[in-house]
Amino acid sequence: MKRVYVQEQWCLGCHLCEYACAFANSGQEQPGAGGLDMSRALQGRAINPRIKIEEKDNISFAVSCRHCEDPVCQKSCIAGAISVKDGMVHIDQNKCVGCYTCVLVCPYGAVMPAESGQVMQKCELCTERLNGGTPACVAACPNRAIVFEER
Amino acid sequence: MSNKKATNEYQAKYAIIGNSAGAVGCVEGIRRVDKEGDIILLAAEPYHTYSRPLISYLLLGRTDEQRMKYRPDDFYSANGVQTLLGAENEVLEIDAAEKRLRLADGSTVLYEKLLAATGSLPFVPPTKGLDTVANCFSFMSLDDAQALAAAISPESRVLVVGAGLIGLKCVEGIAERVKQVTVVDLADRILSSILNAEAAEVVQRYLESRGIQFILGDCVKEFKPNMAMLQNSGQQLEFDVLVMAVGVRPNTALLTAAGAEAERGVLVDEHCRTSLPDVFAAGDCTQGYDVVSGERRILALLPNAYMQGDCAGANMAGQAEVYKNGLALNSIGFWGLHIMSAGVYQGEALVESDAQHYKCLFVQDGRLNGFILVGDVARAGIYTNLVRTRQPLDEVDWPLLQVKPQLMAFRPAERAQKLAARPAASSDLEQQKGDKA
Question: Residue B329 and residue A105: Cβ atoms within 8 Å?
């Protein structure tokens, strides 16, 4: 299965992955159908992306869901809202009650609350918007620090 | 599938007593290994598997009976599980020598491997006059939640006895639907099983700002039909509805009657086996290994129940898997204030706090033993993983981690392993899988 991998030696710390993620999950991305472009869609808005950059001194790297093969979040979810579909770890936000147990157990710190604070979100490989294509963060990375590969 | 004979003598390769997280984990653990062997699942509650901790969210209107199902509607059929649900199927006896269960309606079930995931029962301290209270409820099951919902009205004055996890989640669930909620607890602080005094104070102040009243360090000496008389303060509290949430006890009777070794919970080894041949146990009824203390403790938590059940199931199906990295873990929220705790509270307490936030990390012998977080809980799993894996803190940038949980604190090679290598398993579970017996 293809996953998102992060190679920190190539990360420029530009945060474009965060904006691309926020735009991809904003529901306003409708190419050619009157949708907004990224800068207009996100203008003046605080973004809550599912991929986040950590940075310190001259080191930076992006962190998003690793789609573990034996995901501790899925095993720990008290609502049965997390499942694994074809290797992708999925949160059913309709079932999620926002107890944050997944935040308490994810070793990567890759699960976070959605804007409402009442359900959780994380990277789902852009599967809802493009069904198997290159995730937005990968496409937006100008230095191939984030790649989408079979390893 | 199992053959149902005229005399209701069932038989199956696998029998599972229970229908919550431990039982579901067991089904999934068995099916990871054995796609064929027949499974019979027995429970006295007549419902599709549902998430017990969600009953407070049900009262809050944040979920409903359909969405709070712990697994999809086709869970049993998709996994080839025959269910015997309802009071007539309550297991009354385990005959471990004959490998036979006796059910309430006289039926029997012959099994090869058994999982008992019997959970816990509400502990109601014997109190004078309690039997005269008409509107008295526990808060453990869907039936409890629905009965309570039917009994409350906007005019109700509710008395909750017990300021623990169950009592306070109940409070959150009903507070907006009743006139007044008062909570009494014998401990000197709320959530005494998971919080220290300072953290409890932050949370208590917040709950009080939402109109909840607390009477701590006191207990009920005697009940009248609509009145509680307190032991220490002598106060008399009028109420319309009473919720008894003093605590829970492991439901061990079935297993101990069959001869299983038990202390407060049924003792299980690292394969989740009891002392009885081919009898496994998982969840609140057990005492299993706690990776932090190294002792066998009751860890009555849903994630622990699932993982024990999953491990037991794989072992029942012939795999040799171990589960010995359980730990105490709680994530609980009240009206947007989030509280997390993990591990044990031993060692030096490193505290950071202000009016709305509290953070305490417990460090001993160069390892993180546990933590309490109130308010800012972002990325807490990075701390939990340090507790669970027992990673020495001299391998990480500990001062940086004290500021907040972050992967920057790990060495570059370890970070590359985490972010640029194929993840075989959540790293904290890797040990367990690699450590086949």
Answer: yes
